[in-house]
């Protein structure tokens, strides 16, 4: 009993300190996908087209089409599929919060189940809301989660800037293995502050990118960014070993997207 009272007392003291110092995390934006149908238009817009998206991708990204993006029973499904209506033979969806929600710093967590198969390339990522410094990658890119189907279970977290990016072989990133990525939901997250960006899967940190103190060429992450959810088909990375023809359709399922003003203490 004394131990229980001590634990309760300690908990109340910690809660009081957090309340006084403002260290408790505040949920500032979320989508729990509670309404069936198309994704909430107050929260999500779409990138549309099949011009390759800078990576020679094959899919046509559709706009507000239930066959490629829908909410059912509390889950957002983004579905990539063969689609003879489009010249390259595939359609998918790329949801963005651009123009609707953007953030500078915070803790971002997305609970998702990933597609599988050679040629799939799902991503949960962020781009700058404004073009302050010029074309990609000068404004920065934060890849919270990327997975290419030819390398199953290897989940990547990466940043791209003018100084650090894959086109010149200097990108900064990490990876970890998630064996049941396609059958179980996992929480993909970043903790983004003015000093660094930490990358997590299911609460375990596997990579950290520190603010080098340089100019925007090294740290453009001092401006608002919006979020993107998509599945690409093929492309320079996703299609390195081809695209299997018999695996489609493939889905990325998202249970929730939550944005806090700081990393929660669980």
Keywords:
globular; 1 helix; seven-stranded antiparallel β-sheet; 266 residues; Jelly Rolls; mainly beta; disordered N terminus
What does this structure look like?
The structure is a single chain. This protein has 266 residues and is mainly β. The protein has one domain: Jelly Rolls, CATH 2.60.120.200. Helix content is 8%, strand content 39%. The chain contains one helix and 17 strands. The protein has one helix spanning 2-21, and strands spanning 27-31, 45-46, 59-61, 69-72, 75-82, 90-92, 94-96, 106-113, 120-128, 141-146, 154-160, 172-177, 186-192, 196-201, 204-210, 225-233, 250-260. Strands 1, 3, 4, 5, 6, 8, 13, 14, 15 and 17 form a ten-stranded mixed sheet that branches. It has a seven-stranded antiparallel sheet with strand order 2-7-16-9-10-11-12, with no helix packed on it. A hairpin with a 7-residue loop joins strand 10 (141-146) and strand 11 (154-160).
- What sort of overall outline do the alpha carbons produce when their principal axes are compared? globular
Biggest beta sheet summary: 10 strands, mixed
CATH level-two architecture: Sandwich
What percentage of the residues does DSSP assign to strands (E)?
35-45%
Cα Rg: 19 Å
Put the structure in a nutshell:
The chain is mainly beta and 266 residues long. It is built from one helix and 17 strands.
Secondary-structure map:
Layout: H1 2-21, E1 27-31, E2 45-46, E3 59-61, E4 69-72, E5 75-82, E6 90-92, E7 94-96, E8 106-113, E9 120-128, E10 141-146, E11 154-160, E12 172-177, E13 186-192, E14 196-201, E15 204-210, E16 225-233, E17 250-260
């Amino acid at each position: 009993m004394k131990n229980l009272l001590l634990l309760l007392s300690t908990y109340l003291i910690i809660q009081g300190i957090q309340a006084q110092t403002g260290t408790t995390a505040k949920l500032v934006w979320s989508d729990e996908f509670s309404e069936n149908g198309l994704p909430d238009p107050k929260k999500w817009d779409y990138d549309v087209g099949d011009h390759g998206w800078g990576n020679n991708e094959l899919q046509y990204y559709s706009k507000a089409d239930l066959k490629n993006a829908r909410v059912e029973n509390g889950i957002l499904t983004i579905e990539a599929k063969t689609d003879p209506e489009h010249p390259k033979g595939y359609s998918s969806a790329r949801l963005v919060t651009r123009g609707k929600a953007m953030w500078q710093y915070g803790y971002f967590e997305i609970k998702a189940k990933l597609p599988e198969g050679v040629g799939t390339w799902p991503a949960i990522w962020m781009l700058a809301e404004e073009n302050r410094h010029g074309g990609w990658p000068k404004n920065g890119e934060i890849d919270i989660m990327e997975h290419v189907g030819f390398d199953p279970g290897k989940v990547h977290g990466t940043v791209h800037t003018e100084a650090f990016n894959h086109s010149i072989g200097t990108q900064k990133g990490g990876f970890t293995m998630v064996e049941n990525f396609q059958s179980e939901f996992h929480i993909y997250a970043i903790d983004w502050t003015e000093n660094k960006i930490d990358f997590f899967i299911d609460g375990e940190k596997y990579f950290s990118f520190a603010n080098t103190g340089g100019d925007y060429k090294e740290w453009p992450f001092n401006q608002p960014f919006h979020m993107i959810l998509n599945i690409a088909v093929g492309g320079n990375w996703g299609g390195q070993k081809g695209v299997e023809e018999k695996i489609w359709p493939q889905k990325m399922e998202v249970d929730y997207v939550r944005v806090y003003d700081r990393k929660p203490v669980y």
